[in-house]
Amino acid sequence: MDRAQKEKVVEELGQIFESSGVVVVAHYEGMTVAQMQDLRADMRAVGGAVRVAKNKLAQIALEGKPGAGMADLLKGMTVFAYSEDPVAAAKVCDGYAKKNDKFVILGGAMGNTVLDPAGVKTVASMPSREELIAQIVSCIGAPASNIAGAIGAPAANIAGILKTLEEREAA
């Protein structure tokens, strides 16, 4: 790799570290190409991506970026999994590590916060952005449906009383 290519890789990694909601660093030594493709497919499904890069280039890219403390994790065969959603990449990596013992989570970063493996598991256990939006919508919608039911209830009660009165008169 010549100097221009290295500079391009450092720039791309810098963009990843700045714009991602979460970056997970893991060892992938011993994984097959098919296993790595499965991981990449899982990450694409949630809007994330996987990137393998030389540790030295990644350390250079981390200088002055959020999560620069993550540079200590870059030893051996490392892979970066990242996503804009602060939870998606952590969930996929945590799930994949349970299926494949060759994929070992080392830690990661969420903004300026450097995460250890337990921190990544904690982030993975949080609800995703879509799940939070669904919870908020259901909380907002529940009172509206209760109000509609309360408004409609008196009319139903009056209709029931009128029907009973008509039945009495007819009898």
Question: What can you tell me about this protein's structure?
Answer:
The chain has about 170 residues and is an alpha+beta fold. The chain has helices at about 5-20, 35-45, 55-60, 90-100, 115-125, 130-170, and strands at about 20-25, 50, 80-85, 105-110, 115. It has a five-stranded antiparallel beta sheet with strand order 2-3-1-4-5. A hairpin with a 2-residue loop joins strand 4 and strand 5 (about 115).
Features:
6 helices, 59% helix, alpha+beta, five-stranded antiparallel sheet, 171 residues, 5 strands
Quick structural overview:
Helices cover 59% and strands 16% of the residues.
Layout: helices, strands, pairs:
Layout: H1 3-19, E1 22-27, H2 33-45, E2 48-52, H3 55-62, E3 78-83, H4 88-99, E4 104-110, E5 113-115, H5 117-125, H6 129-170
Antiparallel strand pairs: 1-3, 1-4, 2-3, 4-5
Helix pairs in contact: 1-3, 4-5
Given the C-alpha coordinates, what overall shape results? elongated
Instruction: Average the pLDDT over all residues and give the rounded result.
Output: 84
List SSEs in N-to-C order: HEHEHEHEEHH
Main sheet properties? 5 strands, antiparallel
Structural class: alpha+beta
Estimated share of beta-strand residues? 15-25%
What count of helical segments does DSSP give? 6
What is the first-to-last residue Cα distance?
A: 98 Å
| CA-based gyration radius | 26 Å
Tally of strands? 5
